[in-house]
């Protein structure tokens, strides 16, 4: 089997900052707890927002809302500076940030901070294809884990926001001993005041702005669940020959899935069990690998785009050192059991036969900064 030198890897979520398209609400603690950090906070946020394309119309643009909070939940002081429909340009948002001032008010009304953000999203949420993001910068933490001490209504509000599609990026400012966020939204977006906040917030933006359309499941490696991949997969249980499975995927602007790593192979295994009804037995399935090219090099299907050759450094799970060429016939690859069902491997099969028509997976790119999706 001829192999070209090199190594293929999976598609990561792109991060073209100026093309981020999110609805972003920023809540800033202006209580005495910020300890004179307000200028640094404003500058850090201005760097982030200044790199976005803030506008009210267009496709790959972000909308930004802004509010401050201080006091306690019994006597909160909240100032909504801008709703999502307020700022018409990046400069408008940056100028408003620099106009924020700290206060002499003690304590932080976290519940009111959350309900204010929820109200802003509800008031202006008319972009169903844009993800909602709350950046909550606070000098006071909250523990919403099972053993935590945060008030139940605070944790319930955060949970309701998550269920309604709001991703919470919590940024811990100069917190005292025992002050932290835990269980308040996705732990992947729980950030520290470590000098890397701007980079980490931008990375969170790009991860949130990387998602799959309805019917597809996003590939997330089991060993790094905080770093989503820019790949979406849909399983099709009603089997077909490889040639027609390829056509079926192309009709969805997709291609037959690849397995470029142990993690991706494990991900597809789980989906194969799921589409078979959830039992322990995994059904066989086609992948995009085939040797149909005139050169005889095994290549990965890429739909209407040129195929991607299998390279010498790539992940493989052949049952032996090389695939069986089946007397020179063109072959396509399925994942199936061998060795009396104790192992899984890539098995050669005819590409166009009624005798072998397993399930298959279609794969396409995520909606992200490099691939705009008009519908969710």
From TrEMBL:
Name of this chain's protein: Uncharacterized protein
Residues annotated as domain C-type lectin: 228-352
PANTHER family: C-TYPE LECTIN, C-TYPE LECTIN-RELATED
Superkingdom of origin organism: Eukaryota
Domain named VWFA: residues: 23-173
Organism: Plectus sambesii
Lineage: Eukaryota, Metazoa, Ecdysozoa, Nematoda, Chromadorea
InterPro entries referenced in this protein's UniProt entry, alphabetically: C-type_lectin-like (IPR001304), C-type_lectin-like/link_sf (IPR016186), CTDL_fold (IPR016187), VWF_A (IPR002035), vWFA_dom_sf (IPR036465)
């Amino acid at each position: 089997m001829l192999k070209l030198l090199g190594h293929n890897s999976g598609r990561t979520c792109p991060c073209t900052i100026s093309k981020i398209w999110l609805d972003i609400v920023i809540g800033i603690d202006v209580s005495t707890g910020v300890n004179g950090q307000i200028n640094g906070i404003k500058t850090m946020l201005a760097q982030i927002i200044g790199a976005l394309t803030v506008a009210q119309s267009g496709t790959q643009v972000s909308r930004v809302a802004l509010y401050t909070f201080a006091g306690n939940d019994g006597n909160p002081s909240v100032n909504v500076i801008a709703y999502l429909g307020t700022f018409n340009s990046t400069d408008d948002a940056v100028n408003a940030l620099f106009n924020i001032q700290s206060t002499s008010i003690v304590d932080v009304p976290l519940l009111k901070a959350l309900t204010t953000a929820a109200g802003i999203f509800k008031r202006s949420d008319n972009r169903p294809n844009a993800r909602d993001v709350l950046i909550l910068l606070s000098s006071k933490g909250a523990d919403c884990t099972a053993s935590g001490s945060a008030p139940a209504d605070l944790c319930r509000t955060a949970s309701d926001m998550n269920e309604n599609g709001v991703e919470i990026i919590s940024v811990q400012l100069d917190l005292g001993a025992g002050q932290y966020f835990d269980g308040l939204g996705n732990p992947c977006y729980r950030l520290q005041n470590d000098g890397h906040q701007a980079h980490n917030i931008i990375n969170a933006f790009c991860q949130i702005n990387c998602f799959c359309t309805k019917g597809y499941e996003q590939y997330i490696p089991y060993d790094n669940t905080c770093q989503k991949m820019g790949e979406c997969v849909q399983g099709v249980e009603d089997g077909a020959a490889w040639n027609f499975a390829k056509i079926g995927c192309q009709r969805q602007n997709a291609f037959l899935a690849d397995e470029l790593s142990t993690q991706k192979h494990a991900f597809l295994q789980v989906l194969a069990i799921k589409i078979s009804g959830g039992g322990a037995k995994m059904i066989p399935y086609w992948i995009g690998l085939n040797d149909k090219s005139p050169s005889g090099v095994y290549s990965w299907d890429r739909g209407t785009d040129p195929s991607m050759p299998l390279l010498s450094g790539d992940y493989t799970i052949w049952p032996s050192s090389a695939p069986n060429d089946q007397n020179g016939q063109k072959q396509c690859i399925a994942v199936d059991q061998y060795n009396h069902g104790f192992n899984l491997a890539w098995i050669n099969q005819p590409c166009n036969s009624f005798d072998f028509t397993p399930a298959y997976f279609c794969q396409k790119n995520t909606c992200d900064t490099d691939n705009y999706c008009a519908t969710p």
